[in-house]
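Quick note —
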Amino acid sequence: MALEKLATAEVESWLAKTDSWSIDDGKLFREFKFKDFSEAFAFMTRAAMEAEKQDHHPEWFNVWNNVRVHLTTHAAKGITKRDFKLAETMNRLAGE
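Predicted structure written out below.
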């Protein structure tokens, strides 16, 4: 998948299609909430396996039932289609 940084308009167009992701510090951002730590960790495990398949790895932070995710493509110095693909995968894994 291309590592080309997307124009602001492209990013805004994608964000307009979802209410779950936003921009934080120039990166795609989402906070996932689960019933408990086990569900949060199970999500992270599934997401990690998918991220590895996509060769694209998230910046994330977990406390109990909360998983905060930032996505950016460091090689492109910004948001690319790879970030959108992983975001959509994470949404699906979270049951959306």
